Amino acid sequence: KRRSSKNLPPGALGIPIIGQSRSFSRAMRENRAEEWIQERTKRYGPMSKLTLFGTPTVLIHGQAANKFLFTSDSNTITNKQPKSTQRIIGKRNLLELRGDDHKRVRDSLVSFLKPDVLKEYVGKMDAEVNRHLEMHWHGKQMVKMFTVKRGARREALVDHLEKMMEGMWSVPINLPFTPFNSSLKARKRAKTIIKDLIKEKRGALAEHRSSPHADLITSLLSIRGDKNEEIVSEKEIIANILLTMRAGYDTTSILLTFIIRQLAKDPDIYAAVLHEHEEIAKSKAPGELLSRDDLSKMRYTWWVAMETLRLFPPVFGTFRTTLRDVEYGGYLIPKGWQIFCAACSTHQNENIFPEPHKFEPTRFENQSSVPPYCFVAFGGGLRICPGYEFSKIEVLVAIHHLITQFKWKLCGKDDTFSRHPMPSPAEGLPIHIEPKGNNSH
Ligand code: HEM
């Protein structure tokens, strides 16, 4: 009785399980998700009910909605991905954990991702980016931005991950030929590879052949309890490696792809970024690796990255689930319902970001001028992205080498993109590349 439809937000739940999933997914694929949300807002107001990916859902968006979502206590609103995502990544992934479990696994992950540890990785990433350019860019005239691979096993893992992604936001029906089914199969194959890696890395750690922070798996294996027992279980390691690869690999490569796309389209911004990197390159001896100090001089490049994230956020919206009946915006969201917050819709709000469609990196010159909960490409609150610093290093190092070693121009016929659920450019963004004669590599 308490849940009389009077209190529920307007809108229709549609066909059970399926509801509006198809029309939302289609809008995402056609890069019309913002319009789709605006249409619903016009029809039902800022809050509406629907069924997405198997579960009754309330759609919310806007600055107040972001604040509500990111600051709610985890006993009322918890992180819960759609059933499809849960099954594909694994139940023990950080996005599914809460309370003490979330803290234990998040702390373990953050012990690897904190700036102190990461500063030792600047040189490693520099060498890795150079190796990648050497293997995949030098000597070629055209590359596609959507490939970053080295070694057969990594190649296989990346392939499986891409297949996993395809069914991440899908109706969770496990029948042959459904996207969900092929993602589950890809998960199984990825899991086997990660299990082998865990075995190898556990051996190397036990025989002191590797240091605790050698890589993320080793770092998670090294977190020990009072009796020197591993406190992050194998299931948790597998789920969180898959999550980190999904959360960390695609997001950053998408960001890089869209920066490259933008630089090819905007000569003034390209010139300003190039100038910043040429100044840094001049101060380095041939072959000298980048340092943390060099990265701190790449301020304009990071504004370009933030502006790219504003316009093309890899994570467009966020799912949560209510653990009890919740009142918000004058409506009831019943216990067990899903909340989908289209968090990044604030990025397009002209009252927050004037001329929202214009690419203007200097918006981020004074970050405190951006109102709270309005730039949310990395989320917010307790679950704010722990990979912010890692992705910042990766992006700055990669752009440094790309822009000092190559010129590029877009050569695809179609430069639009779609979302699956992350944005991916049509044709994989092929670009013509030309090495610069004067680089020191
Ligand atoms: C441009 C790059 C990135 C973007 C835009 C991004 C975005 C986000 C967002 C929006 C969330 C919050 C999701 C939510 O509230 O439901 C998140 C969480 C997360 N991100 Fe990132 N991310 C990026 C890079 C990375 C990297 C490089 C890593 C790891 C190396 C990473 C690991 C994670 C993890 C583990 C979580 C879950 C945190 C938790 O639930 O406590 N991310 N990310």
Report on this model:
The protein is α+β, with helices and mostly antiparallel strands. It has a single domain (21-435), classed as Cytochrome p450 (Orthogonal Bundle), CATH 1.10.630. It is built from 15 helices and 12 strands. The chain has helices at residues 21-29, 33-44, 63-71, 83-89, 99-113, 115-118, 121-136, 152-166, 179-206, 216-222, 234-265, 267-282, 292-296, 299-311, 388-405; strands at 48-52, 55-60, 77-79, 142-144, 318-322, 326-328, 331-333, 338-341, 406-410, 417-419, 423-425, 430-435. A 5-stranded mixed sheet has the order 1-2-8-5-3, with helices on both faces. β6 (326-328) and β7 form a beta hairpin. Residues 145-149 have low confidence and may be disordered. Residues 79, 94-95, 106, 109, 113, 243-244, 247-248, 251-252, 255, 309, 314-315, 318, 377-379, 383, 385-387, 390-391 line the site of protoporphyrin IX containing FE (HEM). Keywords: Heme, Iron, Metal-binding, Monooxygenase, Oxidoreductase, Signal. Residues 422-441 are annotated as: Disordered. One of its GO terms (molecular function) is oxidoreductase activity, acting on paired donors, with incorporation or reduction of molecular oxygen.
